Amino acid sequence: QAFFCLLLCVPWGSSCPPSCQCTERAGAKVVLCSSQHLEEIPKDIPRDVVFLKLDANSITRIPSNAFRHLSHLEELDLSRNAIEKIDRAAFKGVAAGLRTLDLSSNRIRSIPKEALLALNAKLRLANNPWHCECALQEVLWEARLDPDSVQDITCHTAPQEEYVGKPLLQVLDAGVNFCSVRQRTMDVAMFITMFGWFTMVIVYVICYIRHNREDACKHVDYLKSLPSTQAHAE
């Protein structure tokens, strides 16, 4: 009876993942899962965790709702992993309370802006092989980035070779606007499409006119070939 009473009294979420260390810091739950060769986010992280360290592992993806049950989470360290993909709803459920998110030193080339712009957390995005584009530019302008790491957000690839290897902030300060480049590209594509449709309509009209003209000429020739009324009378 005492054993079952103990089970009932243990709060849900108080267990600790086998590969992690759970402790407390100033009364707040801390879960340390650093350097544990993890390939994905543990499923049994305590619900009352406040500080979560998953750095220096082999995690490659942050799926949707990965931390949704961690409503008390304030600091999340995902640095020094192999993260390549982050889903749009990766941080759904923790966006309001998260104060720090470290995604530095991963393999992130691009990220849905919806995944980050909903956060109030201070972001660290340095040392990733970023592809400089409109979405990353919007994140840089609108998200709360750690000022100490902004200069290390570098263009690994870019629409133009001259931007490769340069800090994104430096490129934008020089007046480059990746969003306007994308808009111009879309405008050109739309213009080409409209021109194609317009050309097809013109060709159709010309063919239609020629066809009607040929029919009219054939009809006239046919009428000329008929015996005239006068000749018939004679």
Automatic annotation (TrEMBL):
Task: Provide the LRRNT domain boundaries.
Answer: 15-51
Which locations, inside or outside the cell, does it occupy? Membrane
Q: How does it sit in the membrane?
A: Single-pass membrane protein
Q: Which PROSITE patterns match?
A: LRR (PS51450)
Q: Which Pfam families has this protein been placed in?
A: LRR_8 (PF13855), LRRNT (PF01462)
Look up the signal peptide feature and give its range.
1-22
Q: Which spans are transmembrane here? A: 188-209
Tree of life domain: Eukaryota
- A single Gene Ontology CC term: plasma membrane
Family per similarity comment = Belongs to the LRRC3 family.
Q: What is this protein called?
A: Leucine-rich repeat-containing protein 3
Q: What species is given as this protein's source? A: Menura novaehollandiae (superb lyrebird)
| Encoding gene, per UniProt annotation | Lrrc3
